[in-house]
Input
Amino acid sequence: MEIHVPFTQYAQSTPLFTVKEARDLYRKDAHSRSILNLLHRLKLQGRVRLVANGVYSGALAATPLNLYRVPGALRDDAVLALHSALELHGVTNQVLQTVYYFSARARKDVVFRQVTYHRVTPPKALVAPSRRLFQTELGADNVLVTQRERSFVDCLLFLDYSGGVEELDKCLGMFPSFDFDAALAYLKLLRRPWLYSRLGFLLDRHSDKLFFRGKVRDRFLRNLPPGVAYLADKRPGNHWVPTWKLMVPEALSPSRKDSVRT
Output
């Protein structure tokens, strides 16, 4: 790809770019310091902003920075995930001030414009390169993101990055439909029986809207763990839901909503 505008114009008007992208566009090899020198000068002039080492944002860009694109600039293998993925899919009750992404390579948090970009280690079942892109897709602005149902399961697996179980219950209520086969395929890959309890219980709460009944519901019930599972932390006030072998917080207990079917 060739570019025909001066580098200064490109840098100050591009919402997000990496040094590598700039070098490729202007045909500069990694040993050339011309790009770095220009970026240093533009940064001092306030015409570009440093997002992280090797990543910049044009201060005069006409198009706002897409927060969900930043992880892809921070790590080559980044996949937008967890609550941030649900946000991109438009099924969240709130937008968090942290953007979560999966990457196999460690990285410290990056904070830019009061938003924290937090890297999370992918589930062990997806470590193999052949599975890294399992149930992912290219979303708006070419953001690589986990698919909607996988994103929800990931939130149940990593509750610290989900916004909490009450938030997840509200998110599920915003799903226009639910791909049970996709969720079950991912659950089978993860091999965590307690996730069947967590997801099955929440699906039961929205069973009328999502048509969670009959044979598909039975597939979840057949894979429950032998012991007790927990929807959230162990704490006083949790309620026992025998159908799903699950202890749930008081706020989500069946008595606080229509009774869960048995």
Observations:
- Residues 7-58 form one domain.
- The radius of gyration is 22 Å.
- The first helix runs from residue 7 to 13.
- The longest strand covers residues 115-120.
